[in-house]
Amino acid sequence: MTPSFVVTFFQDAISMAGMLSLPALMLGLVVGLLVSIFQAVTQIQEQTLALIPKIIAIVAALMVFGGWMLGQMVNYTQKVFSQMAMVGGG
Question: What is the pTM of this model?
Fold first, then answer.
C-alpha cells in the first residue's frame, strides 16, 4: 500500500461523502433561506417556523434522491472492495 494509494482512497471517500450529502444540504439551505426571508418580511420570529420546513425538505430530498444515492454508494463500495482485493494480494 503506497502513500499515493492512501491519499487517493481518502480523496475518493471525501468526494463521495460530499456528493451524497449535497442534495439534502442544498435543499435544506434553500428552504432555510426562503423561510428566513419570509420571517424578515413578516417579522415573525418563531423557531419552529424555521425548523419544520427544513426537516420536511431534507426528508423529501432523501426520498427523491435516495435511489441515486444508494446506487452511488453501492458502486463505491464495490470499487473499494475490489481495490482491497488487489492491495491484499487476493
Answer: 0.77
